[in-house]
Design brief:
The chain is α+β, with helices and mostly antiparallel strands. It is 40% helix and 15% strand. The protein has a 5-stranded mixed β-sheet with strand order 11-10-9-12-13. The N and C termini lie far apart (59 Å).
Length: 446
């Protein structure tokens, strides 16, 4: 370090008073920090200490991204409601993307002000881009929803969106990681703004939200996020598998191609988000619903239900059955989920997300999986009364035992390995009725 002693910057720094305590070691005044966030464009804000149990499962990812984290600033920015409620999807998508950009800009402005005051802070981003090298695993750094709930900015409704007590679900969430403690932290509100009116259930075009509160992740992901991630992969593979231009046009309509072009040249289009559009919860939002519920449904919900549009479903899925029965006037297109687990932990993690409970009707079985080779793992999958449970190790008595070379199993899931050939070679072995393996596959159509 001696060679730096005479450098002007080094001399300047050493001439500064060493008696000043670094700002990051001083607790920030909560009221002042809140005022700063609101001044920079946030509509509401809360603070969560890194040690809060409610976000304990996020600690590894948060601390890996910013090891100095002591506090999480959670804030919301309001959306323009009518842009979301309209069946004109272009208006809704512009609102989504514009508000995400606004959230990121607000976060940057807050972070810049804190940095100028000597406080280290890091913005993981409100939406995209994400850590796509991890795909199809967890590609986001911070799960904004549980942080917002912990910060007192609302609770999650049956549609799995955070509902703010005043602004309703017409919000975008932002989080800032902070290398400083705050004098006072905020805590969850004492009631859930969700009315459980079930309008989100009624509006959802793929039946992703059940009347009993069950959520079908696969149905929502396949349709609403068709032009994101796995849906894009499926589209690209459709191009690769097409014999020529005529064959491609037979598989993909001109409007679909144009929509994908728009997503690539601008930003990806959400296909629905009708659950958000139909939600009447929140002090600023509830008046029309309470004043005339019938009129509210006619004006907001029915246009979404009646909209002529393409609904993307996985063949053999609960969504396919639901759309055919509930929305026969909508055009249904069968597509692949595009999801291919790249590891055995990824396969096990994805089972609850891809499980089609209505396809498991009548199935009550315990499956023991033993994976060998490059990834050694034991797991138990229990399917009973249309409920899935995944456990580490072998638990209970198995109705079917599956022993598989891990890489062979992953290639089988990706449809790159023939099951019969793998069974003949002993790469996959089963003990029990083959019909149970067939029934298992039916619960996870791809």
């Amino acid at each position: 370090m001696a060679k730096f002693d005479n450098h002007p910057t080094v001399k300047w720094w050493r001439e500064q008073s060493v008696s000043n305590v670094p700002t990051s070691r001083v607790k920030l005044n909560a009221d002042s920090l809140r005022s700063l966030c609101l001044e920079m464009g946030a509509d509401d804000v809360g603070f969560v200490e890194i040690g809060r149990d409610a976000i304990a499962d996020q600690h590894p990812d948060i601390l890996k991204a910013f090891p100095a984290t002591k506090t999480l600033i959670s804030f919301v920015c309001r959306m323009n409601r009518e842009n979301i409620r309209t069946p004109v999807r272009s208006a809704a998508n512009v609102e989504f993307h514009a508000n995400y950009d606004h959230v990121n800009e607000v976060a940057r402005k807050i972070t810049k002000a804190l940095e100028q005051a000597g406080v280290r802070a890091m913005v993981p981003g409100a939406s995209f881009p994400m850590e796509m090298d991890r795909f199809p695993g967890k590609v986001w750094v911070v799960s904004h929803k549980p942080v917002a709930v912990a910060a007192g900015l609302g609770h999650i409704g049956i549609h799995r969106l955070v509902i703010h007590p005043k602004f309703g679900n017409f919000i975008s969430l932002g989080t800032i990681l902070l290398d400083a403690e705050v004098t006072e932290y905020t805590h969850p509100i004492d009631y859930n703004p969700c009315l459980e009116c079930k309008l989100c259930v009624t509006a959802c075009p793929v039946g992703a939200i059940g009347n009993d509160g069950n959520f079908n992740f696969s149905a929502c992901y396949t349709h609403n996020y068709r032009e994101f991630m796995s849906g894009f992969t499926d589209w690209a593979e459709t191009i690769a598998d097409s014999k020529n231009a005529r064959d491609y046009r037979h598989k993909v309509s001109d409007s679909e191609s144009a929509s994908m072009w728009q997503s690539l040249s601008f930003k990806a289009n959400y296909k629905a988000a009708y659950c958000m559009a139909a939600c009447p919860a929140g002090e600023d939002v509830i008046a029309p619903f309470l004043s005339d519920r019938k009129a509210f449904v006619q004006e907001v919900v029915k246009p979404l239900q009646d909209k002529l549009e393409t609904i993307y479903v996985i063949p053999g899925s609960d969504a396919e059955t639901y759309v055919a029965k509930r929305f026969p006037h909508k055009t249904m297109k069968r597509v692949s989920s595009g999801i291919r687990p790249l590891s055995i932990p990824g396969f096990l993690f994805g089972l609850p997300l891809l499980f089609q409970r209505h396809q498991s009707e009548g199935l009550n079985a315990v499956y023991h999986f033993t994976f060998t080779g490059s990834e050694s793992r034991r797991a138990t999958v229990r399917i009973q009364n249309k409920i899935l449970q995944v456990q580490d190790g072998h638990v209970g008595k198995a109705n079917l035992s599956v022993t598989a070379d891990s890489q062979t199993w992953l290639r089988f899931l990706a449809k790159e390995q023939n099951l019969i050939w793998a069974l003949l070679r002993g790469k996959i072995r089963i003990k029990g009725s083959p019909k149970l393996l067939q029934a298992f596959g039916k619960c996870f159509p791809a």
